[in-house]
Write a structure and sequence with these properties.
By secondary structure, the protein is an all-alpha fold. The chain has 8 helices and no strands. α1 packs across α4.
Amino acid sequence: MGIRVGELAEVYEAHFDDIFKFVYRRIPNKQMAEDLTHDTFFAALKKGKAFLEYQEPKLWLMVTAKNKMHELFRRMGRWATEPLEEECPDLAVTENSYEKIELELTALAMVSDEEWMLIKKYYLYGATIAELAEAYNITENNMRVRLSRLKKKLRDKIER
């Protein structure tokens, strides 16, 4: 069964800004971000009634947008035939930077930007509990609990 335009329009109105911001934070080119966002909603339209039956359509849209970005990065990797490091170091995409982007996209589909930043500060950048507690204006014990809950949240979503 097809999806009615009005039904998709409601979902589009409710979630377009969130999906666009999600994409634009990772691909800071407005036109590309808009195109990928529209591609995401087109995929929902193609999915039909099954899309509307998801309990969390926004989560489905975010995962689809993430997959569309992965697809774009793969295509971009194939387009690059000459190394850019010498002429344009800012444009060069290394395997390491792709892995970082992939990690960011995966994590941000599961936790908020603020939560992901906290995780990165502690686990990737080596900030101490005391430093983080001071920065967030909470006690060290509260910071330990917050990090523990975030870790559990990620683990639970990964195990699904």
